[in-house]
Write a structure and sequence with these properties.
Elements: E1 6-13, H1 20-37, E2 42-50, H2 56-60, E3 66-71, H3 76-90, E4 99-103, E5 108-109, H4 114-123, E6 128-130, E7 133-135, H5 142-151, E8 166-169, H6 170-175, H7 186-196, E9 201-203, E10 209-211, H8 223-230
Parallel strand pairs: 1-2, 1-4, 2-3, 6-9, 7-10
Antiparallel strand pairs: 4-8, 5-10, 6-8
Length: 232
Amino acid sequence: MTAPRALAVVVPARDEELLLPACLDSLERATHELSLAHPATACRVFVVLDSCTDGTAEVVAGRPGVTEVPVSVGQVGAARSAGVDAAARWAAGCDPARVWIASTDADTVVPPHWLTAQVALAAEGHELVVGTVQPDPRDLTAREHALWLDRHVLGDDHEHVHGANLGFALAAYRAVGGFAHLPVHEDVELVGRLRGSGVAWRATGGMSAVTSGRRAARAPHGFAAYLDGLGA
């Protein structure tokens, strides 16, 4: 894949009025850096409002470069899928091979170079980029944080998969059928199919994101449950 002509960021959100502002602030910084480095690449953020009952929609409203995608699906796999579908409609005039989808979560803060790093890897021919995440140390005890660091390789060629830090070409995504409508591990399942299809991919530690260390799970047996287990 050459450098993308269009780049869409997909963010599923379910009652995230408290944490979403920091996520969107970080994406604003990342999209600004992208616009400076690649002014010809169109970019837009799609926040999937899944069955929200709080003020999440008000957080999104009025944000420049952000589109809300209201759904009532109740599971993260279907929400991510809806976000990619909305992004694909926005980029309908572009060759899908030159449309890049970046995936993160509403409780995650990405670094300023998050998008430029993905574009650089896409321009090298990669169709899948798998990044790392770190839980916010303010949300963990010292013991939990130490256990996390002991169990996770955060450099290049790591083995972890997180929907909060993924990127892929739209054409490759479509070729394997997209996100499965699963309540958890939809990210691992998609990455497994993409790798199995033979796409060029990269596991990188160079664009690590920081995600919430909360224990109130949005997905059963997901990241929050894993963190809870560290303290067991």
